[in-house]
Amino acid sequence: MGYDKTAVRKILDAAKAAGRSALTAPEAKGLCEAYGIAVPKEGVASTAADAAKLAAKIGFPVVMKIVSPQILHKTEAGGVMVGVRSAEAAQEAFATIVANARRHDPNATIEGVQVQQMLSGGQEVIIGAVTDPAFGKLVAFGLGGILVEVLKDITFRLAPATREDALSMLDGIAAAEILRGVRGAPSVDREALATMIVNVSQLVTDFPEVSELDLNPVFATPRGATAADVRVVLDFKPPVARYRPSQEVIVRQMNRIMKPDAVAVIGASAENGKIGNSVMKNLINGGYQGAIYPIHPSATEILGKKAYKSVKDVPESVDVAVFAIPAKFVAQALVECGEKKIPGAVLIPSGFAETGNVAGQEEVVAVARKYDIRLMGPNIYGFYYTPKNLCATFCTAYDVKGTAALSSQSGGIGMAIIGFSRSAKMGVSAIVGLGNKSDIDEDDLLTFFEQDDNTQIICQHLEDLKDGRAFAEVARRVSKKKPVVVLKAGRTAVGARAASSHTGALAGNDRIYDDVFRQAGVIRARTLRDLLDFARGIQVLPTPKGNNVVIITGAGGSGVLLSDACVDNGLTLMAMPPDLDAAFRKFIPPFGAAGNPVDITGGEPPTTYQNTVRLGLEDPRIHALILGYWHTIITPPMVFARLMVEVVEAMRAKGIDKPVVASLAGDVEVEEAAEYLYQHRIPAYAYSTEIPVAVLGAKYRWARGAGLIPPP
Amino acid sequence: MGYDKTAVRKILDAAKAAGRSALTAPEAKGLCEAYGIAVPKEGVASTAADAAKLAAKIGFPVVMKIVSPQILHKTEAGGVMVGVRSAEAAQEAFATIVANARRHDPNATIEGVQVQQMLSGGQEVIIGAVTDPAFGKLVAFGLGGILVEVLKDITFRLAPATREDALSMLDGIAAAEILRGVRGAPSVDREALATMIVNVSQLVTDFPEVSELDLNPVFATPRGATAADVRVVLDFKPPVARYRPSQEVIVRQMNRIMKPDAVAVIGASAENGKIGNSVMKNLINGGYQGAIYPIHPSATEILGKKAYKSVKDVPESVDVAVFAIPAKFVAQALVECGEKKIPGAVLIPSGFAETGNVAGQEEVVAVARKYDIRLMGPNIYGFYYTPKNLCATFCTAYDVKGTAALSSQSGGIGMAIIGFSRSAKMGVSAIVGLGNKSDIDEDDLLTFFEQDDNTQIICQHLEDLKDGRAFAEVARRVSKKKPVVVLKAGRTAVGARAASSHTGALAGNDRIYDDVFRQAGVIRARTLRDLLDFARGIQVLPTPKGNNVVIITGAGGSGVLLSDACVDNGLTLMAMPPDLDAAFRKFIPPFGAAGNPVDITGGEPPTTYQNTVRLGLEDPRIHALILGYWHTIITPPMVFARLMVEVVEAMRAKGIDKPVVASLAGDVEVEEAAEYLYQHRIPAYAYSTEIPVAVLGAKYRWARGAGLIPPP
Question: Is residue A182 part of a domain?
Fold first, then answer.
């Protein structure tokens, strides 16, 4: 596609020179034509006679609209007349429109009346673009009309969008079916719409000063798409770019910070209850094998380690400095770190931007930039990296090794992560506090964990993204290799920023996060428990090799609820082939139900669970199993659990490793059974049919997003 | 409103006599006119000349439509022409329509062509009625057009609907805003629409043979509503009514069953592992103080109780017989119960309808009806009623007394209820298995628990409703006094029944349950854990006196997630008045945030929690508190928990009892703190911000539904 950038530059420069923040309709149309966006035939008339002549040339009916830089909402101003069918009518319409506009805003500059080919038929849609504070340029798509403005059925993608992105938008709205044609109506021209989306997204990418753009309505027919109206809002202030080193630099620095050979503790203390004391104890008692250098103005030794007055006095190289001193001393100590060429600082202290001390934080960041130090925090609990037995934090130590890396923006949520992990014996590779995110943020962590062999899943709690664009780009790459799960807090707070276009007004903040996360392959957790359960479960589940899920249940009642949960979580209940159905039936009572769920009924001995689960694992057409256990005297919980582990592990030994999750209904003994199953890589939950299926569903969402299995 | 029932009866009788299952358009219009449902001016033309004359009389433009009992989908048959603007055009249209209809179905009887006033403008809506297998007559309302058929934005109420029901339907669709007028459009005539809904609902109630009715589209304008097209489907088969005794009879019988003075165990056994042995042990060891009569063919004594060959041999009166014998012996033993005048039988045995033995179950039900015995089951675990220390079940005994009554259709879910209850030390008044529901079902239980002073909340798991109409009627009454929570399994299975009307096709089974539950004031649990957490939490929370909820949190991060959860659960975060804001600020650090959430910040001592929570309880403008605790060295979990209980209990002693829930973020010690808080009527959850708010939200939904507090 050839884009005429010169034409656009000229129009925008003229608007800038005139100090305008919006384009006139003809100018906006000029942008469209330069970027291959189809618009109706039209012209601008400056007299009523002109209007009649122009209309006759275009062909009736025509639409007539006021042209005035001050009048953005033309309809409300009485500045639009549709269905003008003759030369006389056009003359009359001109007079009416101009009179209405004058009445609406006596000071408006009226440049004329636009006469335009009247489009009709087809499906009305909206295509637009907005500039989001976190994500930058986004392209939007929705169905036109009042109904959609009310229902907010609109979808967003990062600009520039690819053709695939654009096509996914057509399927990304609730009313997607309409575009494919319902009740005998033909399908719209999907390629034409996709091209228009791509072109809009490229236009705003090439010209960042186009801050909002609306094509509303676009008439989409079976043979093409034409934008009937175009509005363009400009903003010539350049956005402030956040510091963003290259991937290579991030990896080099983050590896030294997260896997240090030497740690300095600035503000180390021998006194119980001090943060600098807790950090020292956690480092030592956590079993960290690297060098530990306490920094203290007067002490010569702290907790058996030789102390130094300044990091500059440490004779060896230092990888990371953990700060446990009051905010006001941080900047100076950081200068010393810079002079010592320490690549990373973990800023535990609070008292910065979160308490209003923005200047203090900016000062620290300036030092960091000057000396090329990466900052974690400030206002954090620190971090854990279990493969190095490293607890660089003032919280309690944690040592259960696993492959889940978690991070939180908030300290409270960090504590909940530690408590849950300990309670559930969840293995983790890292827990990181990000706090004020003055520098290191989620995309830096993603970049590190991407290449960290000790991490297989990354779970992040966040309240905002300092650079959503960077996050989305990195997450899109990383999520292809490792599951990325995000709990976005502040989900329901609708962005309060002013919006002067339709598309802008439609942009509920959270819908943007939702769409961008999906585009980036990120699995979204809706609640804190979801984040924690996904972190725990996804890491122990193998990746499914296909979409066929089978439920095997002792309790028919659980089977129904598990089926509900499958639908809720986008899982595909396999349609049971007749031969497989017959094979299952051999093991279950005649009144049990094969099909799917396989209902083995409640009164069965352990062998029935064993035989049916073995069959489910052996048959290559089945890709994942959900077990519904019912506590009975004949098959007590631990008998069931041990047997399931036996069957599943025997299969794993043969190279068959399918995801298996379990829901346990029964008396309190099922809790021990769930624990035992979980420790053997079968995520199992007592008294819940929803959570095990949600965990499996999250694994599936990731596998599909990463392209490892096809969509269902 | 005067309804002309005679006119309707005549039309329906004619259709019945002709063996028809649908009405012609003029007949359908006749129904509408008899029930005050506005329809367009029209007539039927049998020749082209007639059509022209008729059209001229009605006034142009007109719509013309084929009239044929065989052609239901007129548009698809080419049998509709709109916008006919002259007498000549009407003549032509007549010929075209008849020709199209002949081509579409050469065997169709063509009765003529309807000529109708052409409606336009206003908002198109759909009003209809369906006959649901569980709920009977339902009235439906939605917006018209393809978009709504695609988005399925439709709402249902039981017929007959009141004016209030009808008005609530206008607000019950996602696109409700449109009816109130958006972007300068006027509001539709809400009263006219409500009247039409009421009239439709009355019509199908008065004439049950009208099985489906569609008014589609209805043109709703600012001054009235007119149904442009009417379709009526008939079904003259009378529905089979389920046995439904009067409320008084239910109460009398259920009181004897649930609170018996004497229990017979048919199939009692001294042999370990037998169901009849488990039942005996549970009765005896559970501490039941009434008489226990083991029934056994040969034993003279079982577990120290004198045994009898038949219930008829028991010298005293018996209130309930628990059956622990194989299915094939049940009917005969039940006859003996009947002869003994025992009012209730608890049928534990399986082997009835659930295994295909429908006849066996029908036989048992016939015996029960003959002798006026109420049946619980068959295929159940029995039931518990803790105020009588009664464990009439073969499962393990349960003795934690409380005020929640739970029931389950499935045995597996019943076991999960028992396990969860024991694990959480949840007090219950009753746990009841309903199984096949051959007789006693959810509405019988509701009727009993309504008047049972030991029960304050009723939680039911169900897969279907044998008599949804009875359930809805009873639930509507009971939910005004006590919260009714329902987990409806099979939520995602769309009803597979054939539907021949638009409204019918739109009726996703679950949407009906959703709407009827809401209409009946039932709180719907979406998952098993929700049901259990609601049962546990709602009973300990006092009823809020208003909508103002305040979050007090030590962790800012929890505050954000708790706010999200408030929005998700329909809770109102109080807008903080300036004086109250100032009062909170006195207790918190200067960089803490008052407003709502009140963020006291993480480093605060116990007194800060104490002072702010006390203020929150004391100020009468605040109606409920959500606490976000952050585990720190300064305020450890149990210190926080004890202090909160102290503050809350001091207020309770003063007569101030507001709902307080808590989310605890911290290391594993927070689990003990949560437990302690819960035991003192403060529902508290570790590692979750969502669950405590969901519990509070459920209490609010009930209080609003019961009219105890206004809608937010």
Answer: yes
